[in-house]
Protein backbone atom coordinates (compact mmCIF):
# COMPACT_ATOMS: atom_id res chain seq x y z
CA UNK A 1 0.00 0.00 0.00
CA UNK A 2 2.83 2.39 0.87
CA UNK A 3 4.56 1.75 -2.45
CA UNK A 4 1.33 2.26 -4.40
CA UNK A 5 0.60 5.56 -2.67
CA UNK A 6 4.19 6.73 -3.08
CA UNK A 7 4.07 5.95 -6.80
CA UNK A 8 0.81 7.88 -7.18
CA UNK A 9 2.24 10.87 -5.30
CA UNK A 10 5.26 10.94 -7.59
CA UNK A 11 2.92 10.90 -10.59
CA UNK A 12 0.88 13.75 -9.16
CA UNK A 13 3.99 15.83 -8.50
CA UNK A 14 5.15 15.31 -12.08
CA UNK A 15 1.73 16.18 -13.53
CA UNK A 16 1.43 19.25 -11.28
CA UNK A 17 4.73 20.59 -12.60
CA UNK A 18 3.48 20.11 -16.16
CA UNK A 19 0.26 22.00 -15.40
CA UNK A 20 2.11 24.89 -13.72
CA UNK A 21 4.59 25.17 -16.57
CA UNK A 22 1.93 26.75 -18.77
CA UNK A 23 3.33 25.17 -21.90
CA UNK A 24 0.57 22.63 -22.56
CA UNK A 25 -2.15 23.25 -25.17
CA UNK A 26 -5.68 23.60 -23.85
CA UNK A 27 -6.84 20.15 -24.96
CA UNK A 28 -3.82 18.42 -23.41
CA UNK A 29 -4.19 20.52 -20.25
CA UNK A 30 -7.82 19.48 -19.92
CA UNK A 31 -6.97 15.79 -20.36
CA UNK A 32 -4.14 16.05 -17.84
CA UNK A 33 -6.44 17.64 -15.24
CA UNK A 34 -8.91 14.79 -15.69
CA UNK A 35 -6.05 12.37 -15.25
CA UNK A 36 -4.99 14.10 -12.04
CA UNK A 37 -8.46 14.08 -10.53
CA UNK A 38 -8.99 10.43 -11.48
CA UNK A 39 -5.71 9.55 -9.78
CA UNK A 40 -6.71 11.48 -6.63
CA UNK A 41 -10.12 9.81 -6.47
CA UNK A 42 -8.52 6.41 -6.97
CA UNK A 43 -6.01 7.08 -4.20
CA UNK A 44 -8.78 8.21 -1.82
CA UNK A 45 -10.69 5.02 -2.58
CA UNK A 46 -7.87 2.59 -1.81
CA UNK A 47 -7.11 4.56 1.37
CA UNK A 48 -10.80 4.37 2.42
CA UNK A 49 -11.17 8.16 2.37
CA UNK A 50 -14.23 10.15 1.36
CA UNK A 51 -15.10 10.36 -2.32
CA UNK A 52 -14.92 13.91 -3.69
CA UNK A 53 -17.73 14.70 -6.11
CA UNK A 54 -16.63 16.67 -9.18
CA UNK A 55 -18.09 18.09 -12.36
CA UNK A 56 -17.10 17.14 -15.90
CA UNK A 57 -14.06 19.46 -15.78
CA UNK A 58 -12.80 17.93 -12.54
CA UNK A 59 -13.81 20.84 -10.30
CA UNK A 60 -15.24 20.05 -6.87
CA UNK A 61 -19.00 20.59 -6.74
CA UNK A 62 -20.23 23.11 -4.19
CA UNK A 63 -23.10 21.53 -2.20
CA UNK A 64 -24.48 25.04 -1.50
CA UNK A 65 -24.98 25.69 -5.20
CA UNK A 66 -25.72 22.16 -6.48
CA UNK A 67 -29.00 20.35 -6.04
CA UNK A 68 -29.20 17.10 -4.07
CA UNK A 69 -30.19 15.10 -7.14
CA UNK A 70 -27.25 16.46 -9.13
CA UNK A 71 -24.88 15.63 -6.28
CA UNK A 72 -26.31 12.11 -6.06
CA UNK A 73 -25.93 11.49 -9.80
CA UNK A 74 -22.39 12.91 -9.80
CA UNK A 75 -21.56 10.70 -6.83
CA UNK A 76 -22.87 7.62 -8.66
CA UNK A 77 -20.80 8.42 -11.76
CA UNK A 78 -17.66 9.01 -9.69
CA UNK A 79 -18.15 5.79 -7.71
CA UNK A 80 -18.68 3.81 -10.91
CA UNK A 81 -15.50 5.22 -12.47
CA UNK A 82 -13.43 4.40 -9.41
CA UNK A 83 -14.83 0.87 -9.21
CA UNK A 84 -14.06 0.32 -12.89
CA UNK A 85 -10.51 1.48 -12.24
CA UNK A 86 -10.18 -0.92 -9.31
CA UNK A 87 -11.48 -3.82 -11.41
CA UNK A 88 -9.07 -2.90 -14.18
CA UNK A 89 -6.14 -2.86 -11.74
CA UNK A 90 -7.23 -6.19 -10.31
CA UNK A 91 -7.56 -7.73 -13.77
CA UNK A 92 -4.11 -6.49 -14.81
CA UNK A 93 -2.59 -7.91 -11.63
CA UNK A 94 -4.25 -11.28 -12.24
CA UNK A 95 -2.95 -11.32 -15.82
CA UNK A 96 0.55 -10.54 -14.59
CA UNK A 97 0.34 -13.34 -12.01
CA UNK A 98 -0.93 -15.79 -14.64
CA UNK A 99 1.86 -14.81 -17.03
CA UNK A 100 4.43 -15.24 -14.29
CA UNK A 101 3.07 -18.66 -13.40
CA UNK A 102 3.03 -19.72 -17.05
CA UNK A 103 6.57 -18.45 -17.53
CA UNK A 104 7.71 -20.27 -14.38
CA UNK A 105 6.00 -23.46 -15.53
CA UNK A 106 7.70 -23.24 -18.91
CA UNK A 107 11.10 -22.60 -17.34
CA UNK A 108 13.20 -25.61 -16.31
CA UNK A 109 12.77 -26.13 -12.58
CA UNK A 110 16.14 -27.74 -12.01
CA UNK A 111 19.12 -29.12 -13.88
CA UNK A 112 21.41 -32.14 -13.67
CA UNK A 113 25.14 -31.46 -13.65
CA UNK A 114 27.41 -34.25 -14.95
CA UNK A 115 31.19 -34.33 -14.61
CA UNK A 116 32.85 -37.21 -16.50
CA UNK A 117 36.03 -38.27 -14.69
CA UNK A 118 36.97 -41.46 -16.54
CA UNK A 119 35.65 -44.36 -18.61
CA UNK A 120 36.72 -47.59 -16.91
CA UNK A 121 35.95 -50.00 -19.72
CA UNK A 122 38.38 -52.03 -21.83
CA UNK A 123 37.25 -51.27 -25.36
CA UNK A 124 40.39 -51.73 -27.44
CA UNK A 125 39.40 -49.17 -30.06
CA UNK A 126 38.10 -45.64 -30.30
CA UNK A 127 34.62 -45.17 -28.83
CA UNK A 128 31.82 -42.71 -28.37
CA UNK A 129 30.34 -42.21 -24.92
CA UNK A 130 26.76 -40.91 -24.99
CA UNK A 131 24.97 -39.75 -21.83
CA UNK A 132 21.29 -38.86 -21.68
CA UNK A 133 18.14 -38.89 -19.55
CA UNK A 134 15.60 -41.67 -20.01
CA UNK A 135 12.04 -42.34 -18.85
CA UNK A 136 11.85 -46.11 -18.22
CA UNK A 137 8.05 -46.10 -17.86
CA UNK A 138 7.46 -44.45 -21.23
CA UNK A 139 10.51 -46.17 -22.76
CA UNK A 140 11.89 -43.02 -24.35
CA UNK A 141 14.73 -40.55 -23.97
CA UNK A 142 13.75 -37.13 -22.66
CA UNK A 143 16.96 -35.22 -23.37
CA UNK A 144 19.62 -34.80 -26.00
CA UNK A 145 22.85 -36.81 -25.84
CA UNK A 146 26.04 -35.49 -24.29
CA UNK A 147 28.76 -36.97 -26.53
CA UNK A 148 32.38 -37.59 -25.58
CA UNK A 149 34.75 -39.21 -28.07
CA UNK A 150 37.12 -41.62 -26.28
CA UNK A 151 40.36 -42.87 -27.79
CA UNK A 152 41.75 -46.42 -27.68
CA UNK A 153 44.49 -45.13 -25.34
CA UNK A 154 41.93 -44.55 -22.57
CA UNK A 155 41.87 -40.75 -22.88
CA UNK A 156 39.51 -38.25 -24.51
CA UNK A 157 40.28 -37.70 -28.17
CA UNK A 158 40.20 -33.96 -27.45
CA UNK A 159 43.03 -34.00 -24.92
CA UNK A 160 42.46 -30.34 -24.05
CA UNK A 161 39.20 -31.38 -22.37
CA UNK A 162 40.84 -34.02 -20.19
CA UNK A 163 39.65 -32.50 -16.90
CA UNK A 164 36.81 -30.45 -18.33
CA UNK A 165 34.23 -33.03 -19.44
CA UNK A 166 31.15 -31.40 -17.95
CA UNK A 167 27.54 -31.08 -19.04
CA UNK A 168 24.33 -29.62 -17.64
CA UNK A 169 20.97 -31.17 -18.53
CA UNK A 170 18.49 -28.30 -18.40
CA UNK A 171 15.57 -30.12 -20.02
CA UNK A 172 13.87 -30.93 -16.72
CA UNK A 173 10.80 -28.76 -16.30
CA UNK A 174 7.58 -29.01 -14.29
CA UNK A 175 6.30 -31.76 -16.60
CA UNK A 176 9.40 -33.86 -15.99
CA UNK A 177 9.11 -33.40 -12.22
CA UNK A 178 5.79 -35.22 -12.39
CA UNK A 179 7.39 -38.31 -13.92
CA UNK A 180 7.50 -41.29 -11.61
CA UNK A 181 11.05 -42.17 -12.57
CA UNK A 182 13.97 -40.72 -14.55
CA UNK A 183 17.18 -42.62 -15.29
CA UNK A 184 20.61 -41.45 -16.34
CA UNK A 185 21.85 -43.70 -19.16
CA UNK A 186 25.38 -44.02 -20.50
CA UNK A 187 25.91 -45.77 -23.84
CA UNK A 188 29.25 -46.84 -25.33
CA UNK A 189 29.58 -47.21 -29.07
CA UNK A 190 32.76 -48.79 -30.46
CA UNK A 191 34.14 -47.12 -33.58
CA UNK A 192 36.45 -49.29 -35.70
CA UNK A 193 36.54 -52.82 -37.15
CA UNK A 194 33.56 -55.08 -37.54
CA UNK A 195 35.17 -57.64 -35.24
CA UNK A 196 37.91 -56.91 -32.73
CA UNK A 197 39.59 -60.26 -33.51
CA UNK A 198 39.63 -59.56 -37.26
CA UNK A 199 43.37 -59.50 -38.04
CA UNK A 200 43.14 -60.30 -41.75
CA UNK A 201 44.28 -57.12 -43.42
CA UNK A 202 42.40 -57.96 -46.61
CA UNK A 203 39.13 -58.06 -44.66
CA UNK A 204 40.02 -55.22 -42.32
CA UNK A 205 37.33 -52.55 -41.97
CA UNK A 206 37.43 -49.26 -40.08
CA UNK A 207 35.13 -46.50 -38.88
CA UNK A 208 32.16 -48.75 -38.19
CA UNK A 209 29.95 -47.88 -35.22
CA UNK A 210 28.97 -50.92 -33.16
CA UNK A 211 27.09 -50.99 -29.81
CA UNK A 212 29.48 -52.03 -27.06
CA UNK A 213 27.95 -51.36 -23.64
CA UNK A 214 25.30 -49.55 -21.64
CA UNK A 215 24.78 -48.57 -18.00
CA UNK A 216 22.15 -46.65 -16.11
CA UNK A 217 21.19 -45.31 -12.72
CA UNK A 218 18.08 -43.68 -11.29
CA UNK A 219 18.21 -39.91 -10.69
CA UNK A 220 14.56 -39.34 -9.74
Automatic annotation (TrEMBL):
Source species, domain of life: Eukaryota
Name of the protein in question: DOCK1 protein
GO molecular function: guanyl-nucleotide exchange factor activity; small GTPase binding
Coiled coil, from the record: 72-99
Annotated Gene Ontology cellular component terms: cytoplasm; plasma membrane
Pfam families on file: DOCK_N (PF16172)
Listed GO biological process terms: cell migration; myoblast fusion; small GTPase-mediated signal transduction
Keywords carried by this UniProt record: Coiled coil
Domain Dedicator of cytokinesis N-terminal residues, every copy: 2-205
Amino acid sequence: MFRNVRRMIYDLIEWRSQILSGTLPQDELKELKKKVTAKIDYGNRILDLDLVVRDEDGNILDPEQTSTISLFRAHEIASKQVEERLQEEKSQKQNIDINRQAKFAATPSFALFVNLKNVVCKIGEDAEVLMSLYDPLESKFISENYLVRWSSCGLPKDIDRLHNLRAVFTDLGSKDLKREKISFVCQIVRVGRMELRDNNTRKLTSGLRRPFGVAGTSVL
